[in-house]
UniProtKB/TrEMBL annotation:
This is Accessory gland protein Acp29AB-like. It comes from Drosophila albomicans. The gene is LOC117564596. The keyword Signal applies. Keywords: Signal. Residues 117-230 form the C-type lectin domain.
Length: 234
């Protein structure tokens, strides 16, 4: 826009000067008043063009300033959004980290020191007593099951590690007339009863091993005893 007005100004000046030159050359002397009268339109034209040029420059400056202000506001808005998103991501990362720590803490709490005894891995709970049902749930939380005794060899291997009077096994007859393993759902393969056992009938439906020989006794399932967890075979 400025270039257009500058071009117009130059053309006007050239045209006016050319006219003035012809007037001066062709006019009789003296021509002061005549020349002055002829140059007045040129002066007015120049003044008008200068005024319009100034207006254009002002408008362009205002428009440029407005555009810069708009861009600045948009940048500030984007900056605020970016900062909010960054803070949100940081909070999410912290929450995930905290949750991960809690999960790991919970896993460590549930993870028990299983030890190899014979060919299997066992955790012997000799600090907390539970009902038979509680013992089943506890072993499941540890990723295992109540001990399944398959033969005398397995029982003989674990007896030296036992320090309490009584421990639950996975054998019961809660839902059927015969004794079954809750781990397999099948009939118990190995039963070594103490003398006079089983003697409880329908009131004693869960099986534990009892010192000193750790032979089997039937007991009410809601009796609280210690228990042994056995890791699943891989």
């Amino acid at each position: 826009m400025i270039l257009i007005f500058e071009g117009i100004l130059i053309l006007a000046l050239w045209h006016s000067i050319d006219n003035a030159h012809r007037i001066v050359v062709g006019a009789p002397a003296p021509c002061d008043a005549y020349c002055f009268n002829e140059l007045i339109p040129l002066h007015n034209t120049i003044a008008t063009l200068n005024h319009r040029l100034s207006e254009c420059e002002t408008m362009q400056s205002v428009n440029a300033s407005a555009r810069l202000d708009k861009i600045d506001k948009e940048l500030k808005t984007h900056k605020v959004r970016l900062l909010a998103n960054t803070q949100g991501i940081s909070r999410n990362r912290k929450n995930l980290s905290d949750q991960g720590k809690l999960i790991e803490k919970y896993k460590r709490k549930l993870r028990k020191p299983f030890v190899q005894i014979g060919s299997g891995y066992y955790y012997i709970e000799d600090e907390t007593t539970m009902t038979w049902f509680g013992a089943v749930r506890a072993c499941l939380r540890y990723g295992s099951h109540l001990i399944t005794l398959n033969n005398q060899e397995e029982l003989d291997a674990i007896i030296p590690r036992l320090t309490k009077n009584m421990y639950w096994t996975d054998v019961n007859n809660l839902s059927v007339d015969e004794l079954v393993s809750i781990t397999t759902g099948l009939k118990a393969e190995f039963l070594k009863w103490a003398k006079g056992e089983p003697n409880g009938g329908s009131k004693e439906e869960c099986v534990s091993i009892v010192s000193p020989k750790y032979e089997m006794h039937d007991y009410p399932c809601r009796t609280k005893n210690f228990f042994i967890c056995e890791a699943y075979e891989e």
